[in-house]
Amino acid sequence: MSAASLWPLAVPALALLVTVAQRDVHRIATVARATALVLWALAIWALLSRPLGLWDPLALWFLLMVLVLTGFCLMVSAQYVEAEVAQGELTAAQARRYFLLFQGCVLSLLTIGAASNYFVVWAGVEGTTLTTILLVAMPGGRAVEAAWKYIVITGIGGLLALLGTVFALHGAQIPLNVTGFALAPAPVAGPAALAVQIGFWLALVGYGSKAGLVPFHTWLPDAHSEAPAPVSAVLSGVKLAGGVYALLRLLALTDSAVGPLWPHRMLIIIGLLTLALAAGALAGQRDLKRLLAYSSIEHMGLIVLGAGFGGLALAGALLHMWTHGLGKTGLFFSAGNVRLRFHSTSAPSVRGVLRAMPLTGAALALGASAIVGLPPFGLFWSEWLLLLGGVRAGYAVWVAVAVALLLAAFLGIGLRLPALLLGAPPKEALPAEGAVREGAGSTWVLGLELAALTVVGLALPAALHSVWLSAVRLGGG
Questions:
Q1: Does 182 have pLDDT greater than 70?
Q2: What are φ and ψ of residue 425, in 5° steps?
Q3: For residue 227, what is the enclosing H or E element?
Q4: What is the model's pLDDT at position 348?
Q5: How far apart are CA 98 and CA 132, in angstroms?
Q6: Reduced to 3 DSSP states, what percent helix, strand and coil does the chain have, rounded to the nearest 5?
Q7: Strand, helix or coil at 258?
Q8: Which residue, 288, 390, 396, is CA-closest to 332?
Q9: Where are the domains of the chain?
Q10: Is the pTM of this model over 0.70?
Q11: Cβ proximity of 107 and 128 under 8 Å
Q12: Using only C-alpha atoms, what is the Rg of the chain?
């Protein structure tokens, strides 16, 4: 692993040091905004400097997603925390602790994408887990209970993922201190093949708990509903995808060592079970953030299903990591705006969002349209490629089951969201006479993300398209 590939980690590391030295909330928020701008500039640089060979295409694909989406999350965090402090719901010390942990989370996420070593990737996944656990517990009360559930389930999962990585590398006869990812080890048989299979199964359980896959998902709805909105956004849009990315790295190793049939069947089974549970649970949710949490579980199941199908479906799955990340972070940002205005995200306390907050309400409606896969948004095409790839790979029956479950999820969201958007809002949620309904700081990020989703739905930019196809080939698509 080249040390040069890790230099993007210097950005959040420096932001951490500056934040430690600050006490004023507004200055700390300014540091977060500046960090976001640098991360976006770094994403442009990384996209244009691919010939430097610092990262392989699959790593670059995930790294670009981290740079872009964590930039959005930092921007919204600055506005959200300043508002929480102004309303008296967070103290200045809590706000400072929030930004320290959030910058640590960004550092860990960048480690996952920038590293080219199985164990450093694992360490990055664990870093995101530890920082987000503490961020989930920030509000206190029920949030602490949700954080405990989060740490118990995913902590055990982290140990299993580490053990699985050791087993898989040992069985594939690859040194544990290997530099770079061993994408094409020699086929193995006998006890060595069994070790690889056991290793992948343990990694699937371990990283599956990080990604919210069934049956290791139970921490996720509680954590999402109790965490501050930007934390829910980074959890759903980036952190869950980090678990899937780590699993994909071991999938490529397992395919080469023991063949693709067995691990891919496991992924198809887990993906369908995850999709089924989420689709069944969506209609019963009365809290907006829990609704979005189960939607995240649904989409992680869909991504894993695409990886299981392989080929063209893997192309859809990799694209879906991006499109889901853009759509879901925007929805959680909207949920954060709703909470700041209504002091709740649950019905019946929340109703009439479109009247009380027209821009946020419109963003919620459009974001929900995107997340259920309606055109012209990018999720329509990523889901289409994923399902079409499944049919071409000979899994037409399972694709039909997946389509039925996606329709059930569509109906679940369609049943619940209108009750929040329509009707007359409570009087206390309406702005005072002559007051501005929504500031630009709370809505411009939503507009930018919806625009990006629409652009991706119409034509993927050429530079990103090239990285995407190279990543698919690297993953065996």
A1: no
A2: -75, 160
A3: none
A4: 77
A5: 10
A6: 80, 0, 20
A7: helix
A8: 288
A9: 260-429+440-477
A10: yes
A11: no
A12: 21
